[in-house]
Design a protein that fits this description.
With about 160 residues, the chain is mainly beta. Helix content is about 10%, strand content about 40%. A hairpin with a 4-residue loop joins strand 3 (about 60-70) and strand 4 (about 75-85). It is globular. About 15% of the residues are buried.
Length: about 160
Amino acid sequence: MFGQGHTFHTRQSTRQSTRQSTRHHHAPRTTPHAPRPTHHSPITSTATCAEDNMGGERVRLYVSGQFLGFKRSKVNQYNHTALVKLQGVESKEETNFYLGKRLAYIYKAKTLKKGSHYRVIFGKVTRAHGSTGVVRSKFRKPLPSNAIGARIRCLLYPSTI
């Protein structure tokens, strides 16, 4: 149909050849990057005033945790109770300090509301779960399932000391 010696090029093969030819042709950067502006979440996570912490270093006002999943049995899952593993907590006795503390799941949304893209779902630690430092918690709205494995902040208030 095309005669002898003619080759039929598809659109896909020409795309691949242009991709290969334009790949890795970036000019080397000669100027260093300007520092990026830091975006803070709605929860004040650090104290920045030098008078507050004497040395001027940043102080973290929360304990980091990880959302493991929901409380469940073999068949049923209870979405109103979330399981959170707190950093540095390894036993059931150590969880007693965190009972009643506020939890915050901070996520980023596409839509700008009240001048911020960040949203928060608050909850509180209700009791221990097992003997390895995992706690049960209840949030105001059930956490979304795509938050499993995400970071949770355990705020160090209300204090019971």
